[in-house]
C-alpha cells in the first residue's frame, strides 16, 4: 500500500558543522505521512533550516538516513543530489528571476527539465490558477506585491508536481496582514494539491493555524511531535511548555499519584487537581499553567499581586505574582469590564493545569 508508507522518513539524522561546539541536528527521528502538513517549530538556531536542507539534499548527513516515498536519498553510502530528489522548495527569499515575467519564472523549471511546450503551457496555467495569479502572466516580479511574489514562488515549486514540498519561513518577509492572508492560501494550497508539506517557522501561531502535526526542535533535538492541541495541552518538556502558547511553567509538588490522568497537587501553598500522564509519580514537579487554567475568584486560595494589566478587547490580560512565589509570573484573563491595575491584590483559583513530564533528556 503506497500511501501507508511515510512520504518522508528521517531516521536518527545528525549534522555537525565543522568548528562548532554542538551538532546543529542531533539524532532526529521523524516520519511524515503522505498528504500531511507538518510544521517544524523552534527558536532561532535550533536546527530547523539545517534539517530542511538535509532533506533537500543541500547538506550531507554525518549519521542516519533520509528516505522519500520509500527511497533512501541520504544515508551512509548514498547522497542523491538535490536536483534529482523531486522535492519542491520555497524559501524566505523567493529568488525569482527579476528580468523574467511571471509566466517565464514558473515555466523555468519545466524548460530546464525539457518538458514539451504544449505540456509546459498547460502546467504553468494550472499552477498559476492554483495560487490565484491567473491574469498576472506578463508581469515582472518588481510589479507584484510581496504576497504575489511568494505565490509565484509557490507556483514555480508546484509546477513540477513534487512529492514533497519544503517551505522555510516563507512568510517571514511579509507584513502581519499579508501573513494572515497567505496563511489561508497555504491551507488552501495544501487542501487543493494534497501535497506532503514540511513547513519551517519560529512563529507558533502560524504553526498552530496550519499544521496537522507540529515537531518542536530544541537545540538540534526533537522535543515533541504532536497535533497542535496536544502540544498546547500536554507539552512533553519544560521547553515545549514555555515555547508553545501563553502561560507559566512553575514549580510545585504532586501529592497523590495519578488516577485517570489527573492528580492532586500543591501549588503556591494551595491544593488543586490538574491533568497529568498516567503513571505520574509523587514529589516535586514542574507545572504548566495556561491563562484559562487560572480564574480570579474572591474565595480563591491563592493571593497574588497584579504586575501588569493590558486591555485586549473583551478581556484584560493580567500578569500576576503569587505571594508564595516571588518572581513567578502567572498569566490569566479577567473579564473586560473589570478594572484591574498594577499593584492591586487578586485572589485566584487553579481550575486546571498540566504536570510537565520529567525531561527525557530533550530539555535541560
Ligand atoms: N553553514 C554553517 N556552518 C556552521 N554552522 C552553521 C551553518 N549553518 C548553520 N549553522 C549553525 O547551526 C545551528 C542551526 O542553524 P539553523 O540555520 O539550522 O537554525 P534555524 O533553526 O533555522 O534558525 P532560524 O530560526 O534563525 O532560521 C546554529 O547554531 C547555526 O549557527
Ligand atoms: Mg532557519
Please explain how this structure is put together.
InterPro entries: AAA+_ATPase, ABC_SmlMolc_Importer, ABC_transporter-like_ATP-bd, ABC_transporter-like_CS, Mo/tungstate-bd_C_term_dom, P-loop_NTPase, Transp-assoc_OB_typ2. Keywords: ATP-binding, Nucleotide-binding, Transport. One of its GO terms (molecular function) is ATP binding. The chain is of the alpha+beta class. The chain has two domains: about 1-235, Rossmann fold (3-Layer(aba) Sandwich), CATH 3.40.50; about 245-355, no CATH class. The chain is about 25% helix and about 35% strand. The chain is built from eight helices and 21 strands. It has helices spanning about 50-55, 100-110, 115-130, 145-160, 175-195, 205-210, 230-235, 240-245, and strands spanning about 10-15, 25-30, 35-40, 65-70, 70-75, 80, 85-90, 165-170, 195-200, 215-220, 220-225, 250-255, 260-265, 270-275, 285-290, 295, 300-310, 315-320, 330-335, 345-350, 355. The strands form four sheets. The protein has a six-stranded mixed beta sheet, sandwiched between helices. Strands 2-1-4-5-6 form a five-stranded antiparallel beta sheet, covered by helices on one side. Strands 14-13-12-15-21 form a five-stranded antiparallel beta sheet. β10 (about 215-220) and β11 (about 220-225) form a beta hairpin. α2 (about 100-110) packs across α3 (about 115-130), α2 runs parallel beside α4 (about 145-160) and α3 crosses α4. The radius of gyration is 24 Å and the shape is globular. The protein starts with 7 loop residues before the first strand and ends in an 8-residue tail after the last strand. The chain binds adenosine-5'-triphosphate and magnesium ion (MG). Adenosine-5'-triphosphate binds near residues 24, 44, 45, 46 and 202.
Amino acid at each position: 500500500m503506497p500511501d501507508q508508507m511515510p512520504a518522508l522518513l528521517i531516521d536518527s539524522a545528525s549534522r555537525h558543522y565543522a568548528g562548532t561546539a554542538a551538532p546543529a541536528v542531533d539524532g532526529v527521528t521523524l516520519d511524515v505521512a503522505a498528504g500531511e502538513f507538518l510544521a517544524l517549530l523552534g527558536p532561532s538556531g535550533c536546527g530547523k533550516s539545517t534539517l530542511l536542507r538535509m532533506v533537500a539534499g543541500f547538506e550531507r548527513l554525518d549519521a542516519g538516513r533520509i528516505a522519500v516515498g520509500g527511497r533512501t536519498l541520504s544515508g551512509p553510502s548514498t547522497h542523491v543530489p538535490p536536483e534529482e530528489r523531486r522535492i519542491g522548495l520555497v524559501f524566505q527569499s523567493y529568488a525569482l528571476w527579476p528580468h523574467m515575467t511571471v509566466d517565464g519564472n514558473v515555466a523555468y523549471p519545466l524548460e530546464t527539465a525539457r518538458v514539451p511546450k504544449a505540456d509546459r503551457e498547460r502546467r504553468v496555467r494550472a499552477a498559476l490558477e492554483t495560487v490565484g495569479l491567473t491574469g498576472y502572466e506578463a508581469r515582472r516580479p518588481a510589479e507584484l506585491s510581496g504576497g504575489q511574489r511568494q505565490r509565484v514562488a509557490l507556483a514555480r515549486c508546484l509546477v513540477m508536481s513534487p512529492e514533497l514540498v519544503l517551505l522555510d519561513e516563507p512568510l517571514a518577509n511579509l507584513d502581519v496582514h499579508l501573513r494572515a492572508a497567505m496563511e489561508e492560501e497555504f491551507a488552501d494550497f495544501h487542501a487543493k494539491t494534497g501535497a506532503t508539506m514540511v513547513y519551517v517557522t519560529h512563529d507558533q501561531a502560524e504553526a498552530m493555524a496550519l499544521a496537522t502535526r507540529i515537531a518542536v526542535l530544541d537545540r538540534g533535538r526533537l522535543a515533541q511531535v504532536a497535533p497542535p492541541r496536544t502540544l498546547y495541552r500536554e507539552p512533553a518538556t519544560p521547553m515545549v511548555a514555555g515555547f508553545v502558547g501563553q502561560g507559566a511553567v512553575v514549580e510545585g509538588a504532586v501529592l497523590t499519584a495519578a488516577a485517570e490522568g489527573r492528580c492532586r497537587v500543591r501549588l503556591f501553598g494551595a491544593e488543586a487537581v490538574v491533568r497529568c500522564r498516567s503513571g505520574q509519580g509523587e514529589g516535586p514537579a514542574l507545572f504548566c499553567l495556561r491563562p484559562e487554567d487560572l480564574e480570579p475568584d474572591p474565595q480563591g486560595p491563592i493571593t497574588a499581586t497584579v504586575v501588569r494589566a493590558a486591555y485586549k478587547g473583551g478581556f484584560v490580560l493580567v500578569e500576576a505574582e503569587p505571594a508564595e512565589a516571588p518572581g513567578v509570573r502567572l498569566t490569566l484573563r479577567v473579564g473586560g469590564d473589570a478594572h484591574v491595575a498594577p499593584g492591586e491584590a487578586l485572589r485566584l483559583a487553579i481550575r486546571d493545569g498540566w504536570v510537565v513530564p520529567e525531561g527525557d533528556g530533550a530539555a535541560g
